[in-house]
Give the backbone structure.
Amino acid sequence: MWAFLQTTMLNDYLPIFLQIIIAIGFAVVALVLSVLLGQRAKRNQIKDTAYECGMLPIGDGAPRFSVKFYLVAMLFVLFDIEVVFMYPWAVQFQELVMNDGTALWSMLIFALVLVVAYLYALKKGALTWKN
């Protein structure tokens, strides 16, 4: 029985093993052929500099962003995800309200929490750029 199970499992996984071996072999052959047949480029200082859309690479690579940028981005993601939660509810709205009014009240409370959070963010100045 054990030998039967081993041959059955081997037959089931053989295509996967062959695909993995062929993929690794193709990658190795492609790399070896590119090294053997590829031309060697002459290096100089101009070719070794980073190409940045035609601009000379002067200064820091990563500019500093204001914390406001990240705060607004996080608020956007937060409110965007909350609206995504409302979509399935809106699709099933008629069926949910006909069966029970609890779905309507739960979504009203959910929307109220969102409005309170939005007003809090406005009051704290989280969405104003100039301070």
